[in-house]
């Protein structure tokens, strides 16, 4: 039996993970601070669905150490999935302190809480840790010393902080480097979401680096299965890539989206954005071997699910 605490539970990945874990009959409780980085109504919609499925999401901040202690203790938590973070590359150029607060200070609060109430930790890292790495696909064996933005640097710091606490306090920990996760109830700040909105509203979409970018888009259902497998893993400390292992050119991605929406995009080509990476591509051999991680969803199928959800969700307002 697992008693699982999920931070960032009203976020995109947290929401889907909580539903999945609940279906496995585990006890699941969440925490989220419902910040205004993107549409809070979407976070509240996710919270409502979670509640309907018997999952409480407490409104609170990971920097509240007393609250963390109470949640871990009162619920006899055995596993923590730490997903709460300030995400986004562009925002890190504008509001750097948000990343310091949630991704650095907040991360240490989680580690300190685990020091008092030991539980297995699975935490979200990111493909952004690979930064300027040239060798593709990115392997967890590769050096990760040159992040291209503050967000990526905080995620790399999380891996280092986690290892140090694991080393001293022997708490089992798994870090998951997620690669561009997409799907229903996704994040409105991400390009695929904004492209969909703009194409439907016949507004111009901005394409950086003239479209010469590649992303290893990974469907949410595959990510959730990989994350749940990390909870089951019997390991001291491990880092995994969770990606699709099939990078897609941005222009190809847009043409698939146009097809799913049955509408052409109005494109504006712009130079490379500061802090962006040219390519993300995951080597998932270690995840296949140790987590039995085999992503199943093609970009065509996954975008189809996303577009269907998007149209239904936004037609109800
Ligand atoms: N979605 C992706 O493509 C992707 C890729 C790589 C890594 N990640 C990582 O995965 C995790 C989940 O990402 P997501 O896409 O679901 O993002 P999300 O923004 O939808 O979810 C994060 C949730 O955490 C909450 N939160 C933020 N700071 C908090 C704090 N201080 N206290 C309590 N709650 C707080 C937010 O309100 C949000 O609901 C994050 O750590 C993110 O960095 C995501």
Describe the structure.
- The protein is an alpha/beta fold and 317 residues long.
- The chain has helices spanning 12-23, 40-52, 65-74, 90-94, 96-116, 150-169, 191-200, 220-232, 250-261, 285-291, 299-315, and strands at residues 3-7, 27-32, 56-59, 79-82, 120-126, 173-178, 181-182, 204-207, 214-215, 218-219, 237-242, 248-249, 266-269.
- Strands 3-2-1-4-5-6-11 form a seven-stranded parallel sheet, sandwiched between helices. Strands 7-10 form a two-stranded parallel sheet.
- Strand 1, helix 1 and strand 2 (27-32) form a beta-alpha-beta unit.
- The model has no long low-confidence stretch (mean pLDDT 97).
Strand fraction equals: 15-25%
Number of helices: 11
| pLDDT < 50 stretches | none
CATH evolutionary superfamily: NAD(P)-binding Rossmann-like Domain
What are the secondary-structure elements, in order, as H or E?
EHEHEHEHHEHEEHEEEHEEHEHH
Briefly note the structural class of the backbone.
alpha/beta
Oligomer: single chain
What is the makeup of the main sheet?
Answer: 7 strands, parallel
Beginning-to-end CA distance, first to last residue: 40 Å
Chain-averaged pLDDT: 97
User: Which term fits the overall shape?
Assistant: globular
Number of strand segments? 13
């Amino acid at each position: 039996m697992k008693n699982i605490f999920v931070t960032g539970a009203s976020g995109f990945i947290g929401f889907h993970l909580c539903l999945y874990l609940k279906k496995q009959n585990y006890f699941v409780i969440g925490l989220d601070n419902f910040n205004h980085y993107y549409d809070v109504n979407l976070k509240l919609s996710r919270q409502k669905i979670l509640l309907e499925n018997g999952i409480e999401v407490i409104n609170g901040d990971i920097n509240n150490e007393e609250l963390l202690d109470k949640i871990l203790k009162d619920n006899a938590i055995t596993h923590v999935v730490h997903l709460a973070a300030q995400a986004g590359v562009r925002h890190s150029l504008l509001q750097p302190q948000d990343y310091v607060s949630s991704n650095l200070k907040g991360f240490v609060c989680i580690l300190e809480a685990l020091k008092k109430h030991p539980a297995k930790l699975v935490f979200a890292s990111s493909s952004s840790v690979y930064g300027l790495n040239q060798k593709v696909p990115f392997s967890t064996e590769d050096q990760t010393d040159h992040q291209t933005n503050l967000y990526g640097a905080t995620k790399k710091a999380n891996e280092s902080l986690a290892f140090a606490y694991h080393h001293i306090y022997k708490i089992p920990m798994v870090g998951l480097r997620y690669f561009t996760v997409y799907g229903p109830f996704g994040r409105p700040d991400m390009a695929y979401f904004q492209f969909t909105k703009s194409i439907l509203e016949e507004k111009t979409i901005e394409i950086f680096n003239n479209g010469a970018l590649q992303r290893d888009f990974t469907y949410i259902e595959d990510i959730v299965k990989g994350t749940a497998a990390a909870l089951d893993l019997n390991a001291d400390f491990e880092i995994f890539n969770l990606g699709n292992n099939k990078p897609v050119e941005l222009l190809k991605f847009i043409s698939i989206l146009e097809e799913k929406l049955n509408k052409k995009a109005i494109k504006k080509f712009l130079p490379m954005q500061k802090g962006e990476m040219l390519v993300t591509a995951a080597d998932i051999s270690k995840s296949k071997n140790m987590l039995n991680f085999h992503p199943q969803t093609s970009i065509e199928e996954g975008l189809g699910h996303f577009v269907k959800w998007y149209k239904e969700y936004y037609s109800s307002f």
